[in-house]
Design brief:
Number of strands: 5
Order of helices and strands: EEEEHEH
CATH architecture: 2-Layer Sandwich
Largest sheet: 5 strands, mixed
GO biological process, one term: translation
Organism: Saccharophagus degradans (strain 2-40 / ATCC 43961 / DSM 17024)
Keywords: Ribonucleoprotein, Ribosomal protein
Number of helices: 2
Shape: globular
CATH topology: S16 Ribosomal Protein, Chain: A
Family: Belongs to the bacterial ribosomal protein bS16 family.
Helix content: 25-40%
GO molecular function: structural constituent of ribosome
Length: about 80
């Protein structure tokens, strides 16, 4: 099954996450199909906290991809803010 979930990057104590479309059997930070955005939980000032390529995200959702709980919440928050 294809899932849309967060993949961790960044350094120690400074997390940064990519929203990735991946096979659910792969590891968290392993091989992915496509990156569709990012989430920066420690963004300050003018830094961008969340970016989602909504066109690609909608494509994958139409193909049957399942979002993780956290990604679903981020998408909902992004839609409310826009």
């Amino acid at each position: 099954m294809v899932s849309i979930r967060l993949s961790r990057g960044g350094s120690k104590k400074r997390p940064f996450y990519h929203l990735t479309v991946t096979d659910s059997r792969k590891s968290r930070d392993g091989r992915f199909i496509e990156r569709v955005g990012f989430f920066n939980p420690v963004a300050r000032g003018q830094e961008e906290r969340l970016r989602v390529e909504s066109e690609r995200l909608n494509y994958w959702l139409s193909q049957g991809a399942q979002c993780s709980e956290r990604v679903a919440k981020l998408i909902k928050d992004a839609a409310a803010a826009a």
